[in-house]
Write the structure tokens for this entry.
Amino acid sequence: MLSDKALNEIHLIKSKYQDSRSCLLPSLYVVQKENGWISPAAMETVGELLSVPDATVKGVATFYSMFRREAMGRHLIQLCTNVACMIMGAERLVDILRDKYGLQPNGTSADGRFSLVIMECIGACDAAPAMLVDADLHGNINENTIMATLDKYA
Amino acid sequence: MITVTINGKQIKIEKAVTVLDAARIAGIKIPTLCHHDLLESFGGCRLCLVEVEKLPRLQTACTMYITDGMVVQTETERVVEARKAMLEFLLINHALDCPYCDKAGECDLQDLVMKYGPSSGRFAEGKRKHPESYDDPIIVRNMERCISCTRCVRMCDKVQGASAISMVNRTSKTFVEPFSGGRYNCEYCGNCLTVCPVGAIMSRLHKHTYRPWYIEKNVDTICSFCGVGCTVTAQVRGNSIIRVIPEIGKGVNKGLLCNRGRFGYDYINSGGRLTSPLIRKNGVLEAATWSEAIAYVAGRLQDVKDKSGGSAIAGIASARCTNEDNYVFQKFMRAAIGSNSIDSAAAFAFAPAQKYFESIFGQGVTANPISGIAKADGVFVIGGDPTSVNPVLGLQIRAAAQKKVPVITVGYTPGLRNFSTHSILPAPFAETSLLAAIVSELSRIKSPDVIKSAFGEIIRSIQPVSSEDAQNACGIPADEIRGCADALAGMTNPAIIIGRDIILRSDGHTNLLLLAALMQLINGRIYLASEQPNERGIIDMGCVPDSLPGGRPIAVDSFRKRYEEFIGSPIPSSQGLGLMEIIAAAHSGQVKALYVMGENIAFNVPDHSYVKEALEALDFLVLQDSFMTETARMADVVLPTLSWAEKEGSFTNLEGRMQHLQKVVDGQGIDDWSALAEISTLLGVEMHYKGVKDVMAEIARVSPLHKGITYEDMEGGQCMWPYKGEPLRHDLVLPGIDMPDVKSMLRKPGKDMVYIGVDKPLFHSGSLSRNSQALSSISSKPFARIGGGLAGRLSLADGDYVTISTSAGSLDMPVMLFADMPENLVLVPNNFEGAGVYKILAWKMNENIKTPAFDSIEASLKKIERITAEGSA
């Protein structure tokens, strides 16, 4: 389910906190980084590792909207289409992603490489249009540069 | 003293309580939704908002503590307006389906909306849709009605400690769900049903058949499943129980229940109930009239008595029967039959353990209030999982654990896995060496003053066992043993909870001695796990071979004479046979007739084929029972008797509290005591009781312990040991305590051995619960528990069928894997017909305490390859 690397990371997290519940959020980050999303089986694994009841893990994992609970592509594109980005041409970028990768909003490309989520402002209006790919912010993107940016994510 | 003024009423309160509690003291009701008396304050629903002078904003009464001079208004226009607004928010999503919601009529939200609220909201977005979940056999979730008060989740997390449900998602999409999203994987205590203020979590057992106004009467009675003796309220319509609920704050359980107590009551309506007396004619059990059956039993018993004497007749009583039943049973056996061979299934563990501790420390040493466990500053658990044998007692241990006191568990106790600070899992049946090492360490740590008592002699004479030696014997690292001893040494008022597993051993008496030493060294209070509701009562009533009502030894002439005077007939002076001796004597032909009251001995006594031979060898077997059990099928006469809800009487729970069992519904059959009285009268010892009160009045005269006791004394649960009577004066005698040779206890487990043990599952108890449809819907078939290591060795997966064989026979059943089980052990329950572990337990007798010893019984497991639908193996 989880690689040895991920398991080691979780064990390291456990050594840093006194209370096992405190390890829950950082451990869920590790799972999401590893798998792209948090599956029910992964929740059970985390519950077992931390001695936190499964139901509690589920409660936490479903509370935070940035934890994904459906299978995702390897990389998550979070593209803003709020006012500033829309004026600067974000909707054209949505079209490009659909044409080039077959990516629909809230969908995943057929090769499992990218998933796309449309965001309502990611706080980067100064660099509009902007998107997050995984945890990286890319600003001032346009029709010409978006493909090159995404090429870096295999 | 804190003075507060609430709605113009000035009250003085000693300590700082919440405004809500202060208002209650003043007799003022503040509405609440998320608050519940069994739970900590939460402050989520905002219904208890009140106006506090000098504070600009409204405050939640459930979380605000009073201060001196505080002035509170609970029903101002501003407060009422705010509550109305809160209710309007709650109605955004709450389905207004009151006309067909079972909760209507006792729904907190409905009541509040009637008082304060708008009948519908102004939000035009529409309500969220969430189909009702019927995935579970017992619990129906309707999340359209959920108001996210989190009472159920807090109950499950903080009180029950099962943590089976949680709030998932956020904002208006929040609802309650078990991890699976469908069927619960939980303890089915149903305490979430108690606290749900709306119709979001409901019981399937009375779905669409229950309405508060259908209830014709509420009867407060005592649960009949285990020795805790929880107070329950049975709600009745016509002559049937619609549901069983707890009452908040009432009884030993204070409003909590377990799965058996809450859902198991339906066994009384089971199709297997007996309705008419049965007499075996030409080998077949045929219906007979009551007078015919009673006369037949009396005639046959008289024959045996004339031919072979009273001592050829033995009696087995039941701790599922009331004190009154059991009192009349022993009187019948002693006076009318002339035999002291009386015993019950309590003789397996509860009775010998109680007797052992009382012989050292005096009568009543194990009578300790259950509520003391949660207040203890340490808990020591050994001999089985109290959370499955006595679930509500188990909650007290969890409550202690929530306070972060040390909780030491010895042996496999899955229900305390997340609560124990020291979880010690010795090799199977090697606890004795561990206990000896703990006692040795403690004797070293504790100052000599502690062990100055007379019993200190014994403690000092126990040969010290080093933790290293114990490590060799039980596989627990010496440091861990010392850590455990240190933790025990730090306790000042600990609770020691002792289960049957440690007693049913060839060295069971040594374990009891070491536990007595432990108790003395750490000033502990002993609690004996009790599987049946009246195990203590049955001993008090004298259904034991060696003592009379009130625990008076039969061998003492003055006690026996006094008893004979009271009942007006002579009784035999010699001690009778115990349970296992009775079976053996029946097998050898010494006992020719057996009178059994309410016990399924053919199933609940180990080594079924031996027991069957013994019962077949009898000339005459009479059984009083409510069900057609394995024993009933072998009996010569079966007398149908009333079950739990159909009779009145009293139970004495494991802490020595006498409680009044009330008649809830009418049933077919007669009281156990009344059948016995009729037969006794025919045998020449007249017994004419007009009712159960008459029997109790006689007990109050005959038993020195129960002097003058009445049912009125039992109201309110205050009738604690030693009642109004005289406990047995006690001189420290240590009969039969032999110094254990500790070196011989050291026992290395065989590496490839598999031992068999008895599993006590949470969802079933004995062979009674199999008649409950509700409990069977939760757990319908037996399974054997095995650990990961054993499963790996035998390549077994969850659900694989195995044949489990011992020298006494074999059983087929699926296995379930539990990672934290001891390596060399398979645990099998004794609940289901044809699949009881007692079938294959070839026990040895522990002569010291007269119990069967179940240790080191080797078993072998063999996987059954089954042909699947595709035809491959």
User: Anything to note?
Assistant: The longest helix of chain B spans residues 290-308. Chain B has five domains: 2-90, 98-269, 279-346+534-542+579-717, 350-528, 748-863. The CA atoms of residues 60 and 847 of chain B lie 64 Å apart. The interface with chain A takes residues 153, 157, 163-170, 177-179, 418 of chain B (CB under 8 Å).
